[in-house]
Protein: UDP-glucose 6-dehydrogenase
Amino acid sequence: MPQQITIMGTGMVGGALDRYFQTQNIKANLYDPPKGLDDVSVLANADVIFIAVPTPYYLDGSGFDESFLRAAIEAIPNSGKTIVLKSTILPGITDRFQEEYPEHRFLFNPEFLTETTVDYDMAHPTRQIVGYTSQSRKDAELVMGLLPRAPFEKVVPAKTAELVKYFGNAFYALKVAYANQMFDLAEKLDLDYDLLKACVETEPMVGKTHLDIFHKGYRGYGGKCLPKDTRAIIQLAESAGIDLSLLKQAEAYNNALCEKQGLNIQWEEGSPKKDL
Structure:
């Protein structure tokens, strides 16, 4: 019998997932009350629920915020669901939710999407990772089978999958900060940065991504993901007694660079206000 699928949250990630399912003739029901999609029966009747809601980071001292995610879980009216978290979450949260909501089985599936190529990235992933808890190991292959195929596919403990996402985004933040500093040096030496970049990016170990200096008209990293995820992993490391000094320096440099351009470093597109 086909699995009944519901997607909670129809933003960039949830919307792209829905459009992918449509290309595969898979019917996914949608639940997103702020957009008028508030039929709770699509939750009650679902076998598998993908949750893709914001996980902000706030600069008011509260830091990483899981309240949108928790509200989504608590909106599910009955038990026995396979819940696939696609929101970016700190390592350990999937396991903690499994303990707090034992009536469901939780997995974590990180997304690796770029906003400008979101549908292509969703349909043609370079990797597909499904993280499991002690209660959801048997569900991992089922969920993997629903997702787009990738050259690299791996089922791993949820905490590993969660850190994979932060590992990548924090590295991209470092790369953007480094590229911006090299841009300043190139200008000081009266060099053409674009020519310099063209010569550097052909090396596969460097790569072509995150070397452009002006993104959406401004310098530095910003937008939905990199600022909040960089701050969140710094917060986690501090709580674990690990000093991510290199990442902290990049974050401080980037904040100063963005503020110098008159940008709001809260980046509300990735960290919406708390009016749930």
Summary: The mean pLDDT is 95. The chain has two domains: 5-156, 164-260. The CA atoms of residues 71 and 276 lie 8 Å apart.
